[in-house]
Amino acid sequence: MSGQMEGLVAIVTGGASGIGAAIAAKLHDEGAQIGVLDRDTTGADERFAAFTADVSDRASVDAAVAGVAERFGRIDIVINNAGIGAQGDVSANDDDEWARVLSINVTGIARVTSAALPWLRKSPSAAVCNTASIASTTGLPQRALYSASKGAVSSLTRAMAADHLREGIRVNAVNPGTADTPWVGRLLDSAADPAAERAALQARQPHGRLVSPDEVAAAVLYLVSPASGSTTGTFIEVDGGMAALR
Ligand code: NAD
Prior knowledge:
It is built from seven helices and seven strands, in the order βαββαβαβαβαααβ. It is α/β, with parallel strands linked by helices. The longest helix is centred in the middle third of the chain and has 26 residues, at 95-120.
């Protein structure tokens, strides 16, 4: 712990669980104050201010971001991490489900970042990090809608980086591989033999195990910290080598 985030305030969406919780803890350990924005704040660390909001609902996002600013007096960092999955090929989900997933995984980033922009513009250390996925860059079977949403997160990351370059707001993303989070736990628990399914899932990973949320958080910390001050519009793969094997 170096205290490199001392004095900064970070919003972490989806910060009550999994990768988001690990990011919130990592930034807090480095000195940042944290506003968790989650539709279900149950389990949000008691060290963090928690705001119940659904990133697919602009009014609740605006209220939560205003709440973070009111509580801490500034916003320097936005971690757009909230996201949901979708299974199946291109025909598997109806129009309502396409709209719902894209509204959370993609438009949610626009809503939260838009609400925070006036504060980011005032910060000398402004940075945004989006949680994309290995699905952004790899053709994963039976993940058509999810992959479309995460590919859009990658494009949006580059566009945001270009738009806000001159304002000193850096925008980057992480591409996690399969990570050991409650989300993946729920998928495994729905299998007939969860232990066997977990072993098979681990065996499919290039480095023989799931990615740890803390490993993703370490990459995010770098991308929003002063150490990466000349880095914007880029991605860090935290995937055990999956992208290298493409
Ligand atoms: P998780 O389900 O453990 O946590 C997600 C959190 O987001 C939860 O606290 C949930 O309440 C919150 N959330 C979901 N929808 C929301 C909404 N509409 N508004 C506000 N909050 C909402 O999931 P996770 O595995 O930690 O995934 C976090 C992110 O990482 C997601 O964007 C996911 O796509 C991405 N990701 C996960 C993996 C993986 O293998 N777990 C791999 C690559 C990318």
